[in-house]
């Protein structure tokens, strides 16, 4: 099934934008009267019939609306952006496919990058949402300073993934199902001792993600997958 995205469908915008229209009509060769599937990225799927097969503005009429099943938990990954932008894009793509709800880019003391184009990451997230047939677009937040992020976060369970041989507690053993999670993933140089101590002082739990030493983007995917698995 091919899924199209129109975030304003709930506001009676019954046409696809130019990029989606071109893909629908030029690439997939959909024609007037054919059924297409659309999401608003806000939890709803729509079955629609093409009214005008214009590759610049494909119009449609809605036949049926359904809601995505609620998960009963949420996953927020705060991650230091990688030096290579392609690697953080890979993380966004895979974590959205798995089921992340919120991604925040985090500026840490050892960060390799302090600027990244979030608009590009949002496009990657939209593509991954459609690819994995999901109806909820995760939020992608621009770079936030570590200390601003860790204060007053509403997550019910908060973790900091830290590379430490004396840290035997795995995320899968510390997290409990049905919670709102926040996991902090540091840069290649890891969090500083000051950052670790600040997080622990605020009630964050230090966890590991397995015996292997992981790249930043891989750690983010592992954390997201682990939390999804314990909620099956």
Automatic annotation (TrEMBL):
SUPFAM superfamilies reported in the protein's UniProt record:
alpha/beta knot (SSF75217), PUA domain-like (SSF88697)
The listed locations are: Cytoplasm
Say if the entry is tagged with keyword Transferase: yes
> What Gene Ontology cellular component terms go with this record?
cytoplasm
Top-level taxon: Bacteria
Q: Which Gene3D superfamilies match?
A: 3.40.1280.10, Hypothetical PUA domain-like, domain 1 (2.40.240.20)
Q: Which reaction does it catalyse?
A: uridine(1498) in 16S rRNA + S-adenosyl-L-methionine = N(3)-methyluridine(1498) in 16S rRNA + S-adenosyl-L-homocysteine + H(+)
Q: What UniProt keywords are attached to this protein's entry?
A: Cytoplasm, Methyltransferase, rRNA processing, S-adenosyl-L-methionine, Transferase
The record's section on PANTHER family has: 16S RRNA (URACIL(1498)-N(3))-METHYLTRANSFERASE, RIBOSOMAL RNA SMALL SUBUNIT METHYLTRANSFERASE E
Entry-linked Pfam families: Methyltrans_RNA, PUA_4
E.C. numbers: 2.1.1.193
**Biological process GO annotation list?**
rRNA base methylation
Domain Ribosomal RNA small subunit methyltransferase E methyltransferase, chain residue ranges per copy: 71-227
Q: EC class of this enzyme?
A: transferase
What range(s) does the Ribosomal RNA small subunit methyltransferase E PUA-like domain occupy?
A: 16-62
Please give the family membership noted in the entry.
Belongs to the RNA methyltransferase RsmE family.
Offer an example of a GO molecular function term for this protein: rRNA (uridine-N3-)-methyltransferase activity
Query: What biological function has been recorded for the protein in this entry?
Result: Specifically methylates the N3 position of the uracil ring of uridine 1498 (m3U1498) in 16S rRNA. Acts on the fully assembled 30S ribosomal subunit.
Q: Does the keyword Cytoplasm apply?
A: yes
> Where exactly are the transmembrane stretches of this chain?
none
Recorded hits in InterPro entries, A to Z, give: Alpha/beta_knot_MTases, PUA-like_sf, RsmE, RsmE_MTase_dom, RsmE_PUA-like, tRNA_m1G_MTases_N
What is the protein's name according to its record?
Ribosomal RNA small subunit methyltransferase E
């Amino acid at each position: 099934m091919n899924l199209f995205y129109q975030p304003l469908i709930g506001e009676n915008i019954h046409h696809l934008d130019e990029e989606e229209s071109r893909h629908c009509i030029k690439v997939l060769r959909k024609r007037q009267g054919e059924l297409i599937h659309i999401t608003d990225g806000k939890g709803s799927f729509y079955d629609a019939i093409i009214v005008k097969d214009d590759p610049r503005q494909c119009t449609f009429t809605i036949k049926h609306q359904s809601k995505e099943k609620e998960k009963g938990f949420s996953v927020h990954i705060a991650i230091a952006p990688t030096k290579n932008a392609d690697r953080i894009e890979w993380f966004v793509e895979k974590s959205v496919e798995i089921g992340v709800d919120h991604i925040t880019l985090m500026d840490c003391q050892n960060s390799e990058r302090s600027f990244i184009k979030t608009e590009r990451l949002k496009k990657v997230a939209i593509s991954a949402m459609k690819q994995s047939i999901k109806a909820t677009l995760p939020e992608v937040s621009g770079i936030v300073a570590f200390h601003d992020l860790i204060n007053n976060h509403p997550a019910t369970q908060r973790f900091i993934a830290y590379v430490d041989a004396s840290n035997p507690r795995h995320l899968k053993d510390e997290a409990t199902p049905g919670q709102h999670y926040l996991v902090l993933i540091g840069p290649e140089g890891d969090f500083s001792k000051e950052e670790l101590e600040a997080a622990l002082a605020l009630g964050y739990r230090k966890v590991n993600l397995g015996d292997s030493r992981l790249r930043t983007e891989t750690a983010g995917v592992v954390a997201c997958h682990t939390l999804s698995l314990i909620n099956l």
